[in-house]
Design a protein that fits this description.
homodimer, about 200 residues, Rossmann fold, six-stranded parallel β-sheet, about 45% helix, about 20% strand, Co_AT_N_dom (chains A, B), Cob(I)yrinic acid a,c-diamide adenosyltransferase (chains A, B), EC 2.5.1.17 (chains A, B), corrinoid adenosyltransferase activity (chains A, B), CblAdoTrfase_CobA (chains A, B)
Chain lengths: ~200, ~200
């Protein structure tokens, strides 16, 4: 256990390291961000970034690849920014809901075309492609097509791609990749249902 | 590769499994949620939950244990809910900023007292204890004290505890635990600085 004085000296040194690090990190760029893994929080963390971007006054586009409608609470909360935020739910539900692969593929392709449209508009500083990784995993979209589209994005635009099953090519091409890992989940272990305010 | 008809049959079966699962999950309860790990997204995913809870009309309290001020963009975005949301930045910065352990400890204790106050008010349906895990890791707060406080929470209140270093006792006591794992980070690898709209 350090004394208070030793603690102070250690923290002074750490402060120097931090200052040095910050000085070395000067690049500004729009990021390709991937939220993957089996845990919770992939879409939720993207929503947090949407909130921050809206707070900065940026325009934001959200395109949902699987869901066919916006969750009412998210819709209510984000209705405060009608001039900054656009939202498109381009899916019709999970694969076990639609039970129709050709229709799922057509929906994924239409969603991707919509995404490309926003990627061509530099005033959209954040584009959230929600659950697009699932469409990639199911081969409803090809990684080549998505990577080619991401290469067209304006320099300052951030793009977030969420969902299980991000292909390795996407991880390679991304700047910031976080895996949400399930450690404990009350659904499975306690029979708890999805909770308002947390999951929807 | 399944034919479209085989796909349809497989998805019909999966739908039955899903329906069964949902039927088994009937419990409603406020959750103790932990976001841990070295990756990004711990606080950000908590912010997404704050947004959902606000959309449901719930009262929300945010208590920051490390930071001494609210990020301007988050503050601007969340200023739309003056009647539902309270925010307290109870820290004075990272340990290498303050360089004063006794003051850090006093701040952590004051933040925890504030948390207990909201935990006693059932109309606060979501309480975010941001970076509290760091205070636990540094032994500024004891796990026993925090767990005892969490046990007093009203049945329907959700509590989110974020930050690296969640102690095992907290993970054991929590309902929903997600580890954010760093796969790739542009700070380190590309010299990119923290980006507006994403990290703050």
């Amino acid at each position: 256990m350090l004394t208070d004085e030793q603690h102070r000296q250690k923290m002074q040194q750490r402060k120097q390291v931090q200052t040095q690090r910050l000085a070395e990190r000067t690049l500004e760029k729009g990021l390709v961000i991937v939220h993957m893994g089996n845990g919770k929080g992939k879409t939720t963390a993207a929503l947090g970034m949407v909130l921050r971007s809206l707070g900065h006054g940026y325009r934001v586009a959200i395109i949902q690849f699987i869901k066919g409608a916006w969750e009412p609470a998210e819709k209510a909360a984000l209705s405060h920014w009608p001039d900054q935020l656009v939202f498109h739910a381009m899916g019709e539900g999970f694969t076990w809901e639609t039970q129709d692969r050709q229709r799922d593929i057509a929906n994924a392709e239409a969603a991707w075309e919509r995404a490309l449209d926003y990627l061509s508009q530099p005033d959209y500083r954040l584009i959230l492609l929600d659950e697009v990784n699932v469409a990639l995993k199911l081969a409803y979209l090809s990684p080549e097509k998505v990577l080619a589209g991401l290469r067209t994005k304006p320099e300052q635009t951030h793009v977030i791609l969420t969902g299980r099953g991000a292909p390795p090519e996407l991880v390679d091409a991304a700047d910031l990749v976080t895996e949400m890992t399930l450690i404990k989940h009350p659904f499975r272990e306690q029979g708890v249902k999805a909770q308002a305010g947390i999951e929807f």
